[in-house]
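User: Show me a protein chain along with its predicted structure.
Assistant: Here is one chain, sequence first, then structure tokens.
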Amino acid sequence: MNPTEAKIIANYLLADFEGEMQTTINVLAAAPDASLDYRPDGKSKTALGLLRHLALEDAWLLNSIADGAFTPPPDDSAACGIHNAADAGSRYKASVPAAVERVRGLPAEKLTETIDMFGMFQLPALGFLSITAKHSVHHRGQLTSYLRAMGGKVPSVYGPTADSQQV
């Protein structure tokens, strides 16, 4: 793929990601703070863990693409300052749009350069952009599946839900 083609695809992927951002923010906000220790299985992340993961790693992945290198993932312990749904939403809104703009500003040639992710994956930057969108939607889906069991309501994602429909 040449750089011009990569830039066209990157612009499409970024616009698609931006279209998903408000849905992600709505899902973050729907997590009831009283149940953030909920997890469906001992191997699963807690709801708070998913809030932190989404709020921190979407920006980390995008910034790593913009930097052309991966640094260790952000600390998602209590030290990160995300203790509830509002914290997660605020962090997401403050960091993810700026990270999207950093990737959007990359020269076309940078999108075709290979980035090494800790020796596990070596892909062009554009490949990591595609993975970033999938990563975000995957973890948002996990959190969405927790909401009713936590006593929350599932917001509209790709159409109305039983909780979002007005009767």
